[in-house]
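Dig into these lines:

——
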Amino acid sequence: MKVTDLVRCDTNQDSVYELFFLYHSLENKSVSKKQIKKVYHLPSIPQTAIPGSFELQPEETAMMCEVLPQMIGVAMAGKAVTKVVRRCHTAKEDRNLNLSECQLMSFPDAVYHLMRNTVLISCDLSSNDFRKIPPQLPVKFFNICELNLSNNRLSTIPEELKDLKELQRLDLSHNDFMELPKVAFKIPHLTFLSLKHNFIVDVDISKVQAAPSLKELNMEDNPLTKTSYIQLRAIPSDKLLVHVTEPKPSDDDDDDFIVNPPNSSV
């Protein structure tokens, strides 16, 4: 997160930007009168008398340099919590839960409680730091039509996702998948699936073709084998529209490997 972004965030605490600036100023032993007053009004700092010259003593500088990083962490955590709570309240109105860019490493159980009387139609958990999605999420949010899990660190998704009867769009792009998540192809009414920019090499084409309602699949920017690439390109677009990136040639490629453009004659 950029410092300029922190400045724009609303908070009941003193500006996180000022804490950052003050911390670095303290390390350099150069602090303004206004900044010193600001620090001494923060509740976590002892109410030490402000020197008349507004110069910090060495022991005060050491103390603040030790305490301020902790305060910065608490302030940032508090802002993240505030953001989640506010977005949950918004979701009660529009039924779209947007928890993107909330610095989440796991799904907060408190969200289930906050949303207990709301039937959500979409859930956006993109741009966080999830390594896994809890199985209870699809159980609690059973009515969602769209689920965005892009830009996380996922390599698997829970089997319970197949029970999302209303889910039509699933975004798993920019994650750490090394193989196709089989459960994604069992979701009964899923029409759009993005696995763009993962680490998938091989594709079980039979699983793809067996997806009951899938109409569009994005497999761009994956290190697919030539065989998987050809098999995906061979699927008729009127049955399934597949977006796929041509594999980059490597030293061990066969000399006679040629990929024909769509609708071209061999």
Remarks:
- Helices lie at 3-8, 16-27, 33-40, 58-94, 109-114, 136-140, 205-210, 226-233.
